[in-house]
Structure formats: C-alpha cells, structure tokens
C-alpha cells in the first residue's frame, strides 16, 4: 500500500528534515510511486539515501524519465536509459518495478516500438507499463495485442482508475485542476503477472474516495486469495489524507483476507524540543 509521494505539507512527516521524511512515510506505508524520476534522473547517492531510509521489503515503483517515454518515445534513448538504470540500482530489492508511463498519443501503431524496447531491457528488473490511448481499453483486438507484448516481456499493465473521480463534477480547486489533467479511461481490472499494480484516484472528500474503491477491495482480495502480491496506490487530488486512506484501504482488504500482514504503526515525528527518534 502506498501513495503518489512520500512527503506532503499536510503530513506529519513534513515537519522532519528532508532526509528523514521518507523514513517517516515508510512507517505508514510500505510502497511508494517514484514520480519525481519522470522529471529528472536522481544522483545515485540520492537513491542510496532512499534505500537507507527503507527496509528491504519496501516497494518502489519508479517511473522512467520523460525523455525516454515521451520525448524519444522509447527509440534512441539508450544513454538516458543507461544513466537511469545505474541511478536506481542502489534500491536493490526495493526496486519492485520500473514503470513506463506512456503518453496518450502512444497508440496501437506504436506497440512494435514498445515490444522492441522491452526486449532490450535488462532482466535484472521487473517492468510495468501504463498506457493512456483509448484504443487499448475499447478495442478488443488492440487489448489482446498489448497484453501479448507485455506477457512476452513478463511486464505488468498498470491501470490508473479515474472512474470514481470523473463520476461527478469537481468541487475544489485541486479537483478542478485534476479534472483538466487526469486521463478519462475505462476501468481495467485484469492482472497479467503475479504482482499486479493499481493506481486509484479518489476525491478530496474521503467518504467518496472510500465509496469509489469498493471495486478494488474485491479485486485485490481476490488476487491475494489467488496467491498474487498486489501493490495499490491511493491518490486524491490534494493527497492531504492519502496515507490514512491507503491504510484504510489495506484494512478493508485485510478484513476480507485476515492472513494479510498488517502495516507498520506510524511513528509520531518528534517535536522541536525532543530528540528525533524514529525507530
């Protein structure tokens, strides 16, 4: 379970020094989306600090940089890819999957480029692909074609479920902003591997977020009973309550699957007049 980030001004961990915020987050959730790598490849030493703040079972789903996926569209980006793979290597077993988020213009005619790119990737990492072209959700032939390409590479298809978000008009500034930026795609619930990944976008109203994820509670519980090991990321437009919501989702799934391990107990950040003790 996790969120789209590990620090937010509304979260208690934001009061900590920047180098300790991930450690606090890892006391609440055991997975995180690595979205910042889309905009810039971090220094290898920076990634090493991420590893040092998390346990070996913590899951990072790290996004490939924009120059590879959006600017070069998976072709001719060998150097950018080499630098990125070297940078994230210190995460070791925490590298749950490297995430290719493709632009909405990347459609069925581009699947050959995706297949060629996946064949060139080293087998030392797992891969997950998010597509945003409607044909991959509405045309059964294109769905099958993409599934075959991903299955051949052992890669997962990452759904970004925005159905509940777009169910009714926005009611806050954050929702209005997301309304213009987030993709409107049909919901996809099929897993291709034993480690599916789900991204779910709710609303800034927590009650509506919880009501909207009922489908995923059922699906994730079913995957667990099948022996799969899913990772779920809970988003809201402002993400102010995302860690608490992620933990609540986990609790609802655990009510269905009691053998699911509990999440850690969140650590309370120390006050300014107290020594910092996180573990």
Automatic annotation (TrEMBL):
InterPro entries: DUF72, UPF0759_sf
Protein name: DUF72 domain-containing protein
Organism of this sequence: Catellatospora bangladeshensis
One Pfam family recorded for the sequence: DUF72
Any coiled-coil regions, as ranges: none
Alphabetized Gene3D superfamilies for the sequence: Protein of unknown function UPF0759
């Amino acid at each position: 379970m996790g969120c789209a980030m590990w620090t937010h001004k509304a979260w208690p961990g934001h009061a900590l020094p920047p180098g300790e915020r991930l450690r606090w987050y890892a006391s609440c959730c055991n997975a995180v989306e690595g979205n910042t790598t889309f905009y810039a490849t971090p220094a290898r030493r920076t990634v090493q600090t991420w590893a040092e703040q998390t346990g070996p079972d913590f899951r990072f789903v790290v996004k490939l940089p924009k120059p590879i996926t959006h600017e070069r569209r998976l072709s001719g980006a060998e150097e950018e890819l080499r630098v990125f793979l070297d940078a994230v290597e210190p995460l070791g077993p925490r590298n749950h999957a490297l995430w290719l988020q493709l632009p909405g213009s990347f459609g069925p005619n581009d699947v050959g480029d995706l297949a060629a790119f996946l064949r060139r990737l080293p087998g030392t990492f797992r891969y997950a692909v998010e597509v945003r072209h409607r044909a991959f959700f509405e045309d059964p032939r294109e769905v099958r074609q993409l599934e075959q390409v991903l299955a051949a590479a052992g890669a997962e298809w990452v759904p970004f479920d925005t159905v509940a978000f777009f169910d009714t008009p926005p009611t806050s500034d954050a929702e209005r902003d997301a309304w213009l930026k987030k993709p409107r795609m049909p919901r996809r619930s099929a897993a291709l591997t034993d480690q599916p990944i789900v991204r779910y976008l709710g609303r800034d109203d927590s009650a509506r977020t919880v009501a909207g994820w009922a489908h995923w509670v059922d699906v994730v519980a079913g995957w667990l009973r099948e022996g799969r090991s899913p990772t779920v990321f809970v988003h809201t437009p402002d993400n102010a309550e995302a860690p608490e919501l992620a933990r609540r989702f986990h609790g609802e799934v655990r009510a269905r699957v009691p053998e699911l391990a509990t999440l850690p107990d969140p650590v309370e950040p120390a006050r300014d007049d107290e020594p910092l003790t996180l573990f």
